[in-house]
Hints:
Elements: E1 12-14, E2 19-21, H1 23-40, E3 49-54, H2 58-69, E4 73-80, H3 84-101, E5 105-109, H4 110-114, H5 118-125, H6 129-148, E6 152-154, H7 159-171, H8 175-179, E7 184-185, E8 194-196, H9 204-213, H10 230-244, H11 248-266, E9 273-274, E10 281-282, H12 288-297
Parallel strand pairs: 3-4, 3-6, 4-5, 6-8
Antiparallel strand pairs: 1-2, 7-8, 9-10
The structure holds Fe4 H S5 and zinc ion.
Fe4 H S5 binds next to helix 6.
Amino acid sequence: xxxTRCREEAWVEVRRHNAxxxxxxxERFFRDxxxxxxxxxxxxxxEDQILVAVSGGKDSLALWDVLLDLGYDADGLYIDLGIGEYxxxxxxxxxxxxAARDRTLHISSLDQSYGVTVPLIAEQTHRxxxxxxxxxxxxxxxxxxxxxxxxxxxxxxxxxxxxxxxLGNVLHWQTGYxxxxxxxxxxxxxxxxxxxxxxxxxxxxxTAAYAVIKGIEYVVEECPxxxxxxxxxxxxxxxxxxxxxxxxxxTFLLSFLDKARAAFAEGDPxxxxxxxxxxxxxxxxxxxxxxxxxxTRQPRRPFKxxxxxxxxxxxxxxxxxxxxxxSVEPGPATAQV
Length: 337
Ligand code: Q46
Ligand code: ZN
């Protein structure tokens, strides 16, 4: 197979574009796709200060890398969720990348700041780990970005994540989530920061290829809570279709954004006000994160009998609103809190 651009030996095939690229031309293709997403969706400019939500995985580190290569002013934020060895390893990968690129990586620890961890939240509240985790991440990304004066939060959601999320939301007709599934979520309130997904036009395979070609070291192991995730099933289903008909995922997602999302958004009005405890924007008196903390510290009811722990992680099918604010990070929270 030859590179579509330079006719050298091709390394990466992009079937939905009927193209293949050598390493150098693939890097160019990848950068072009990210630039196109940024400009097409008016995500941010070179004057904006960007905070990249970094997990230590291939997507978020590839995103941070490409934004820096494109000349954007981007720092990172890593949230220590307290998930044992997985959190330790992913933090090291994030710190190693930041040091190599000489950029600031902010670290926010759930344990140090709030005295909780994702396993503790799951244990105390009897919720699926990803539910509390997703909620905490969304809350902290917004709060840290707002308090540190960043203009925008960028997350590493890729085409596969977004298409799988869309499929899950369509299968369950989650109209509220459909209204808020977009590459850009504007800051509707003074306390909210704009959220963007510059990799939404690039597949998981392509972000992995980019990370390998650029020599980016990333945490390969999955979070232990990702076992059995519905999102993985949806990705497999979409991959089956993609193999038979390249471009299916892209058409599914881009056509939804182009033709259908606005119709759902019209029916989703919500008003924001400051949480009475933390003053972060919320649609309720006390925000979902403050309620989750309260429930973790003082469980409502003692649990009796065997508990069936719902697992399911990775990048979940639904991206529920946190008090009217859509998800900002790959996170499979499965229910609103
Ligand atoms: S980190 Fe958190 Fe994910 Fe682990 S607990 Fe679930 S949401 S799977 S992206
Ligand atoms: Zn609050």
